[in-house]
Amino acid sequence: MGNFDTPSLSRDAALLPDTGEPGFGVYVHWPFCAAKCPYCDFNSHVRHQPVDQERFASAFLKEMAAVRAMSGPKTVTSIFLGGGTPSLMKPETVSAILDGIARHWHVPAGIEITMEANPSSVEAERFRGYRAAGVNRVSLGVQALNDRDLKFLGRLHDVADALKAIRLARDIFPRMSFDLIYARPEQTVAEWEKELKEAISYAVDHLSLYQLTIEEGTPFFGLHKSGKLIVPDGEQSALLYEATQEITAREGMPAYEVSNHARPGAESRHNLTYWRYGDYAGVGPGAHGRLTRGYEKIATATERKPEAWLEMVERDGHGILDQERLGFEEQSDELLLMGLRLREGVDLARWQQLSGRELDPKREEFLLEHKFVERIGNSRLRCTPSGMLILDSVVADLAC
C-alpha cells in the first residue's frame, strides 16, 4: 500500500509541474447538500438529520481497499473531493479520507488536492482545518455575482457570502477556482461581460464557466417544459459564449477546455486527467471510475443512494454496481469525446492505436475546410472555437 512521502511535507510542498501525461486521479464523492438547487442533476441529497460522518468515512476507506485491489499499485497525480457539498464535512473526515488514500496508493508530495465548497457552508476554521488536512486547492460554487440570480438559482448564499468565501480561500489555499453559470434568463451580453470582468478581478487563477442547461428530472425542466422558464436561444447563447472566450483570453485566462479557463500553469490537474483519458478511481455513492487492467479498461459505477451504498459497503466491502469492460472502439470514442474538449486536442497516434484505424480523410477534410477542426503539427487534432460550439456533432462525425 502507498503512503505520503513525508506527511509533514506533502501538505505544503510546491505543486508538481504538469507533465502532459494523463495521470491517475482519485475522486471521492460526498453526496450531501444543505439544499438541492433547481438546475442540478448531480447525485446530491438533502438530509435533515446529522449525517454519521464517522460511519461514512469508514465506508470510504473500506471501498478504497476494494478499488485498490482492482487498480493495483498506482502513483496518484491528483485527488478531488466532489459532491454534493464536501465543505459540509468536518476537517477530521477530510483528513481521514486523505490519509486513507495515502495508505492505498502512492501519494507524492506536491500533487493537486481539490475540494469543492459552497460559500454558504464556509467558515474560516473549517478552511484552515481542510488546509491542515492536505487540501491545497478549493473550488467554490459561486454561480452568480448578483443576489437576484443567486435566488433564482436556488443558492443559499448571497454575494456578500461569496466574496467572503473567495477572500478566505485566497488567503488560506495556494490555489482556488470558482464556478459561474451564464446564459441565465434575460441575461444580456453586456451584463455578462461586466459580471465576468468582476469575477476575474478577484485574483482567482481558475474559472469554470458553464452555460445554464435544462436537465431532465430537475425542477427547472418542468418549468421550462411548461413555458414558465425561458432561457437564451441558440444565437444568444453563442454570443454569450463568444464574449466569454474574448474576455478571458484578453485577461490572461484563456479556455484550456470548453468551460474551463486558467492562467498558464493553473489548469485543474484532476480534470485534465479526465479529458486526457487517464485512469481514475471513483469512491463513494454514485462515483464513476476508469481503471486500466492489461489491455482493457474497466468502467466502474457505484450505488447512487447514500444509505443503500453505505449498507452495501459494510456488507460487501464496496458499493460498486457496474464493472463494464470497454473494448478498443469504445475507448477510442471516449478518448475522442474527452480530448476534443481540450485546447491541446487529441493525440492522434494514441487514438489510432486504440481504434485500429485512421480518421476518415473525407470527414476530416470537410471539418478542416469549414474550420471546425485544425491540425497541430502532424500529431494532434483539436477543435477550433467555432467547432467547440458544435462539439458533439464534430465528435460524432469523426468517430464514424
UniProtKB/TrEMBL annotation:
SUPFAM superfamilies: Radical SAM enzymes. GO terms for molecular function: 4 iron, 4 sulfur cluster binding; coproporphyrinogen oxidase activity; metal ion binding. The keyword S-adenosyl-L-methionine applies. GO terms for biological process: porphyrin-containing compound biosynthetic process. It holds the Pfam family Radical_SAM. GO terms for cellular component: cytoplasm. Residues 18-254 form the Radical SAM core domain. Its cofactor is [4Fe-4S] cluster. PROSITE patterns: RADICAL_SAM. It is found in: Cytoplasm. Keywords: 4Fe-4S, Chaperone, Cytoplasm, Heme, Iron, Iron-sulfur, Metal-binding, Oxidoreductase, S-adenosyl-L-methionine. Its main location: cytoplasm. InterPro entries: Aldolase_TIM, Coproporphyrinogen-III_oxidase, Elp3/MiaA/NifB-like_rSAM, HemN_C, HemW-like, rSAM, rSAM_sf. Belongs to the anaerobic coproporphyrinogen-III oxidase family. HemW subfamily. Probably acts as a heme chaperone, transferring heme to an unknown acceptor. Binds one molecule of heme per monomer, possibly covalently. Binds 1 [4Fe-4S] cluster. The cluster is coordinated with 3 cysteines and an exchangeable S-adenosyl-L-methionine. This is Heme chaperone HemW. It comes from Rhizobium aethiopicum.
